[in-house]
Amino acid sequence: RQARTPTSERMAPRHSPGGDQAGPRCPKRLAGNVFEPPSVLDWRVRERDIRPSPSFFLHRLLGAGEDAVRADFTALLAGRSFEAVLPNVWSQYLSDMRLLDALAQHSERRRAASEAEWQVVDCAAYTSRVLGSVTNRTEAHHERMQALLGALLANPLWSDRRAKWLFIQPHYDLRGTVGRKLAEALVQRNAQIGPVILATVDRDGAHIGSQMPYFDLYRRAVMVPHVATPELARTARLCLPGSCAADASRRGYLFHGDLSRFDGGVRGAMRHIIDHLRHPASLQAKILSRGTATDTNPEPGPGGSGRFEPTARHVAFRETSAATSRAMGESALCFSPQGDMMTTRRLFDALASGCVPVLMKSIGNAPRLWLLGSNPFHHSIDWRSIGLFLAPRSVNLGERGAAGDVTGKQTGGKHYPKGCRAEEAAWLDAKHDNESLVRGLREQGRDAFRAHLDVEFYPRGVAEALLRELAYVLDDDCATRRYKDWYNARPRSSGMSKNGYLYLPAAARFLAAGAEADGAAPESATRCGVGEEMLMEEATHAKRGRRAGRDRR
Q1: Nearest CA among 537, 200, 514, 527 for reference residue 366
Q2: 165 and 217 in contact (C-beta within 8 Å)?
Q3: What are the E-state strand segments in 288-378?
Q4: What pairing do the DSSP bridges indicate for beta strands 281-284 and 253-256?
Q5: Which helix (H) or strand (E) holds 120?
Q6: At what angle do helices 459-470 and 96-104 cross, to 10 degrees?
Q7: SS3 of 2, please?
Q8: What 3-state class would DSSP assign to 242?
Q9: What would the mean pLDDT of 247-269 be, rounded to a whole number?
């Protein structure tokens, strides 16, 4: 096992979960911080309220400018995968052009805007940004975004209160992609006229950089998947159930990545859980798993064809990255902790590789539902059937000090709840030892990835799931507002701030079930009035206040 993954540090546990070093019992019950897999695994969501995919119109607002972006970007790749040419800091977010091309072929596309339920901005803004950076023509990108702003403001439907708009911008940095003026125009329309739904990789992007002015765009956003590592995505398309012989020999755990993120201590807690596991774990710091050289943009190829070639640094990066991909293909469970945001590309890499993801988040005293939030397409995918969900208890920033210690020799971070980590490790080991469960999660996960999460090689399935979310997105947003109000009205040690919007799962059925589990009538905690789903939070509260004033009079 170790010989097959020489770049990995295969670690045996240093503490026995049942031994003297496990520490005192954890004061918090584990059941409130995990989601047990359902007894029957099925990634497909069976909605009681089944809604058809909505119709839409593609507004090609840049005309020849958008055609030029597509032509230049296609020439740059020259038939190769995104990551074969581009650094993964770019490639993992490049879903906009793929999704727009898939929507252009969809049966619900309408030829007249007046016939459509949704208006879609047909502009691959993030692809334009990447193209500008790689070709050293960032000014051309800024000019395109200025032209897009003017075209939107001139469109009659932009000022129509009945119109609902979708803007696909997958990168977490909205302002860095479209510019301040266009970002503010999106916010203004969403707050004062009618919905603008952002399609992006994580609603938690509101906390990155100076994004808080765009909070309400992120709060209502529909999440789309990161672009998976191409080799793993291809493996998922080939490994149909029962066809991959290597799956039978999978053992152990894996985490390769940065161990020092702004994650509230989750990766440090993961590091301490690994200490208590009975099975070996492959643990690597970022410098080992993704290469020592800084990844770089490609360079123009010969002949002026528009084709670009990867640099030597990028080739070196890809070689070391391939070792991580191979190790994922040999492991049973892959840790997928939150980082600077709640989701990362490793979740989609794990699903594609057949390594069952262990999604880990810090939720404090918040609802357990936060564990399910920040994942895409809750109306298509039952995430409880394709992964394991664990919120380390009593996690603290002190654990972050030892997160990057892969040797076990560091003295920092000693004071952590050992009893909690030992019990959490035992829970994971029990799942690891249940071969039928792991096999079922693996097969369901790969199937879900092939159907709706493979951006690069099957964008049609991703576009289908995106449209299904649009059928529910406004009601889900309204139900989330109602749920937060209901949750904070109950006697709790601490309430949920408005940031709690970002971490709740974007599906009203989960919120209703969570309220019912706490003894409330589901409808009282999540049901919205007619027309209320179109309103923003401030407008909704003002409306309730006026109604209350009339009642008092």
Answers
A1: 514
A2: no
A3: 299-300, 308-309, 333-337, 356-360
A4: parallel
A5: strand 118-121
A6: 80
A7: coil
A8: coil
A9: 85
Beta bridge pairs of residue 56? 109, 118
260: closest CA among 397, 61, 58? 397
Tokens 């003026």: give the residue: 181
Q: Which amino acid is at 552?
A: R
Q: Return the structure tokens found at 96.
A: 């906009």
Q: ∠ CA 211-215-218 to the nearest 5 degrees? A: 95
CB 269 within 8 A of CB 396: no
Asked if residue 338 lies in contact with residue 259, where contact means CB atoms within 8 angstroms, the answer is no
Maximal CA-CA distance, the chain: 79
**Mean pLDDT confidence for 386-410:** 70
Answer whether 120's CB lies under 8 Å from 56's CB. yes
Nearest to 485 by CA among 432, 445, 541, 403: 541
Instruction: Please give the structure tokens belonging to residue 85.
Output: 């040419």
Is there a contact between 177 and 126 (Cβ–Cβ < 8 Å)? yes
Q: What is the DSSP-derived secondary structure letter of residue 109? A: B
Decide: 187 and 154 in contact? Cβ < 8 Å. Answer: no
Q: Summarize the confidence of residues 263-269 as an average pLDDT.
A: 84
Tokens representing residue 132 in the block: 């500008």
pLDDT (tens digit, 9 = 90+) per residue, 182-214?
A: 999 999 999 999 999 999 999 888 877 778 899
Closest CA to 386 of 447, 433, 343, 328: 447
More confident: 208 or 373: 373
Give backbone dihedrals phi and psi of 175, rounded to 5 degrees, phi first: -65, -40
Of 292, 440, 264, 282, nearest in space to 364 by CA: 264
Check residues 396 and 234 and name the one with the higher pLDDT. 234
CA dihedral 324, 326, 327, 331 (to 10 degrees): 130
Q: Is 351 exposed, middle or buried (0-12, 13-18, 19+ CB in 10 A)?
A: buried
Q: What does the alpha-carbon distance between residue 298 and residue 314 come to, in Å, rounded to a whole number?
A: 8
Q: Are strands 222-223 and 253-256 parallel, antiparallel or unpaired?
A: unpaired
- CA torsion sign, 391 to 392 to 393 to 396? negative
Amino acid sitting at position 157: L
- Residue that wins the pLDDT comparison between 36 and 289: 36
Rounded mean pLDDT, 49-73: 93
